[in-house]
Amino acid sequence: MTQPHLAFNRVCSPAKPRLSLIASGAIAFCLSSCQVGALQWETADPPAMQSAQSLESQITTAITPQALVQQWVVSPAEAKELIGQGATLLDARIPRLQQRGMLQGSIAVSWRQFSQTGRSEQGMLLRDQVQLAQALQDLGVSQDKPVVVVADPNQGWGEDGRIVWMLRTLGHSQAAVVDGGYEALVAVGMPTERSVRHRATEPGDFVASRTANWEITQSELQQDLGKAETVIIDVREAREFKGATPYGEPRSGHIPGAVHFYYRDLLDENGRILPRQAILAKLQAQGISPNAEIVVYCTAGVRAGWFTTVLTNAGLRAKNYAGSMLEWASSPAETAPLVTGDR
Question: What is the pLDDT of residue 24?
């Protein structure tokens, strides 16, 4: 896939999973887990975490900020350690959940703060990198300090993954999703509070240096249509892939040649991200090679941002088409075709 010439292009080697001990004593890969303009949120309260997960607080783990260059997802125990070392903690859940309680010291954040406002552009990041950097500095994000992001895998759309994808794309090399989200950190003993803060007490010093490693533009995707080495994955619901428009897209269907792979299929029944081998097996069952160049899209690049984060953490080459269906379906059919049905 072609990449635009940029002033800065950070090159990170493919992410590799870390190993940690879980309560049962077995060894498992620690991988972790899109709200758009008109999305309707689930209303059910998140289920309680299983008792085995609560035992993660007893696990001794060692993680360094340097390890996060390749690791985009951390376990609750690893996240707790990073926070104890001074990492910035961001809460990307929806306001209704934030108002029920926040992790102590966390800052509330929304992916919309960093996105354009036009209907067809809602998935795309703000064009002004100085504005983006200032918004992140207000949250306490600093250049060389890890950022840990939580959401709710049971009542969200992958907002944590979208924030981490954005930070990585803007040049922050130590941003990570917490596997299991807010509830998983509570289960390992992280204290909570009722106040919701939207700004850090001390601003950060982050300066954006955008890279094209994990994003793709509409024009680039148009050039890549039909290329054998490019696999396009549509992570929306099956009904959206087939042609339904529950979220108001001006045209229906999916990008020609796209493979449907619902983003939640990378989560287990407890909202934890599947082990790396299970992820690879699911991809291969869809005919997707681990060596493929993967492009991911959804409605506004939020679910796709989460999916890109998880795949990158698993060592795959993936890019988020942030404009996604809101941009593609708003473009002329001659240059941005869509098809309906199962394929």
Answer: 38
